[in-house]
Design a protein that fits this description.
This protein is of the alpha/beta class and 477 residues long. The protein contains 15 helices and 6 strands.
C-alpha cells in the first residue's frame, strides 16, 4: 500500500508538473507582471522535487515490501514442501524460480496496474469525466493490456516446443558428441540444431512485432485524445495533461505481457501452499527401541519415515531418501548437523561409518563427485553427529557391498543408544530388533519381532526364506 500511494503521488506530481509548466509557458508569453507567475514557478519547482522524491519512495517501499513478502512466501513454501514433499526438481523450481517470479508479478504487474487505475480515476474526476479521456483510458487500461496478454500467451505457447527442441538437441550434442563424430552424424545434428535456433529467433522477432504494434496503437490513442480535446476548445495545459495521464497507463501493456510469463509460477506457488495435507500413515507416534521397517519398493516405507520426521522435527532426524548433500566440502556437509562439533567428534563419526573421503574434498552438486556408498556414509555421519532422540535410517548403507554394509550398520547400531527406525530391504540386520513393521500398499500388514514374523505366513517369512537361499546353497556346496 505505501508503494501504491507513493507511485500515485509521483504520477500525479508528474501530471501536475506537465500541466503547470505548460500553463506557465503560455501565460508567460502574455508578458504579465512577474508576481502573476510566482505561484506557478514555485509549483513547478515543488512538483519536480516531489516527483523525484516520490519515485524514490515508491521504489524503496515497493522493493522492501516485496522482499519481505518473498521471504515469508519462501518460508511457507519450504514448510509446505517439507510436510508434503514433491520430487526434487519440481520442489527446487517452486522454491526458487517460481517464488522469484512473484517479485515481477508484484513489482511489474500489480503495482503499475494499481497506480494506473487510481491515477486514471482521479484524472477523470478532475476533468468531469470528459469523454475523450474516458475513451482513451478504457483503451489504454483495458483493451491494449488485454491484447498484449493474449499475444504474449500465444507467443509463449509457440516458443515452448521450440525451446524444448533446442534443449533436447543441446543434450544430444553434449552427451553424444563422441558417438556422433564416430558415425559421421555430427554435422547433421549441428544443422538440425541450427534450424531450431533459427526458428526460435524468427519466432522471437515475430513476437516483438506485436508489442511494437500495440505501442504504436497506444501512441495513436494519445494523439487522438489530444486532438479531440483541441477540437473541443480545451486549453493547451488540459490537452498535454491528458497526454500525461495516458502516459501512466502505457506500461500496462508490458505488465500484461510479463503477467503472461509469470502467471504459471504464481499458480504453482499457490498450488503448493493450498495442497491438502497427506493422510498420515499408521503408527506415526514416536517409536521406542529399535524398529525395523520392511516391504517391497513403493510400499510406503520412506513415506512413513518422512511422516515421523515431520511429526517430530526436533526429535527425529537421520538419513532420509530425499536427504540433500550440498556443493561444499565433506566437513561442511557433516558439520551442518552440529556446527560447533570438535574435530574429535567429526573423526569419531567418520570412523563409525568408515567414511574414506578426506574432509576437505568438495563433493559437487548433491554429492555428484562421490560414489553412492560414499554419499550414504556422509549422510550417515551427519545423522550420527546430530545425535537425535530418534535416528531415522532409510537404506543407510545402500551402494556398499553386503558385507561392508552390514559391518558399517553393525558398528552404528552398537554405538547408538537412542531409538532407531531402520528401513531396509535386507532382513538380516533386524534379527535382534525390538519390533518390525511390514508395509504393503501403504499400510502395515504385519508387525512383531523377527521370531514372530518368520513363524507367520506372509511377506516377511517369504522374504527371509529368499534371503537365506544363497546361504543354504553355499552350505550345501
Amino acid at each position: 500500500m505505501p508503494a501504491v500511494v507513493a507511485g500515485v503521488a509521483a504520477e500525479l506530481a508528474g501530471i501536475g508538473l506537465m500541466t503547470t509548466a505548460v500553463w506557465l509557458i503560455m501565460r508567460a508569453a502574455e508578458q504579465p507582471p512577474l508576481s502573476a507567475l510566482t505561484v506557478a514557478i514555485v509549483a513547478v519547482r515543488a512538483l519536480a522535487v516531489t516527483r523525484g522524491g516520490m519515485r524514490y519512495v515508491e521504489r524503496l517501499a515497493g522493493h522492501s515490501a516485496v522482499l519481505r513478502h518473498l521471504a515469508e512466501v519462501r518460508g511457507r513454501v519450504y514448510d509446505a514442501l517439507v510436510r508434503r514433499p514433491l520430487n526434487g526438481g519440481d520442489a527446487l523450481t517452486r522454491l526458487v524460480s517460481d517464488v522469484d517470479s512473484m517479485q515481477d508479478a508484484l513489482l511489474r504487474c500489480l503495482l503499475p496496474g494499481a497506480v494506473a487505475v487510481v491515477v486514471g480515476v482521479i484524472a477523470l474526476v478532475a476533468t468531469g469525466f470528459a469523454w475523450p479521456l474516458l475513451v482513451g483510458l478504457l483503451v489504454t487500461v483495458c483493451v491494449i493490456p488485454w491484447a498484449a496478454h493474449a499475444l504474449a500467451v500465444r507467443h509463449l505457447r509457440a516458443l515452448a516446443p521450440l525451446r524444448s527442441a533446442l534443449a533436447e538437441q543441446t543434450v544430444v550434442l553434449l552427451d553424444g558428441a563422441a558417438e556422433l563424430t564416430a558415425f559421421g552424424a555430427l554435422e547433421r545434428e549441428l544443422a538440425a540444431t541450427g534450424q531450431v535456433v533459427d526458428s526460435l529467433a524468427e519466432r522471437e522477432r515475430r513476437g516483438g512485432l506485436g508489442a511494437a504494434a500495440l505501442a504504436a496503437v497506444a501512441v495513436g490513442v494519445q494523439f487522438g485524445v489530444a486532438l479531440a480535446f483541441l477540437l473541443s476548445g480545451a486549453p493547451a495545459h488540459v490537452v498535454l495533461g491528458s497526454v500525461a495521464v495516458l502516459e501512466v497507463a502505457l506500461p500496462l501493456a508490458s505488465a500484461a505481457q510479463r503477467w503472461a510469463e509469470v502467471h504459471g509460477s504464481v499458480r504453482r506457488v499457490r498450488e503448493v501452499l493450498s495442497r491438502p495435507e497427506e493422510a498420515a500413515p499408521p503408527e506415526t507416534e514416536l517409536p521406542v527401541g529399535r524398529v525395523g521397517v520392511v516391504g517391497a519398493s513403493g510400499a510406503g516405507k520412506s513415506t512413513f519415515l518422512r511422516q515421523l520426521a515431520a511429526a517430530h522435527p526436533g526429535l527425529a532426524k537421520g538419513v532420509l531418501d530425499d536427504a540433500h548433500v550440498f556443493h561444499a566440502t565433506v566437513e561442511a556437509n557433516v558439520r551442518l548437523a552440529r556446527p560447533d562439533a570438535s574435530q574429535h567428534d567429526l573423526d569419531r563419526v567418520a570412523a563409525l561409518v568408515d567414511l574414506d573421503v578426506p574432509w576437505d574434498t568438495v563433493v559437487g552438486e548433491d554429492g555428484d563427485s562421490l560414489s553412492g556408498g560414499q554419499r550414504q556414509r556422509l549422510l550417515l555421519a551427519r545423522a550420527l553427529l546430530a545425535d537425535p532422540e530418534v535416528l531415522l535410517l532409510d537404506e543407510p548403507v545402500e551402494g556398499l557391498t553386503i558385507d561392508h554394509g552390514d559391518a558399517v550398520l553393525h558398528k552404528v547400531l552398537d554405538h547408538t543408544t537412542r531409538t532407531v527406525v531402520l528401513v531396509t530391504h535386507r532382513l538380516a540386520p533386524l534379527v535382534d530388533f525390538d519390533h518390525i513393521l511390514v508395509f504393503e500398499d501403504g499400510r502395515i500388514t504385519q508387525q512383531g519381532t523377527h521370531a514372530d514374523l518368520i513363524d507367520t505366513p506372509g511377506y516377511y517369512r517369504d522374504r527371509w526364506s529368499t534371503e537365506r537361499l544363497p546361504v543354504t546353497a553355499n552350505s550345501r556346496r
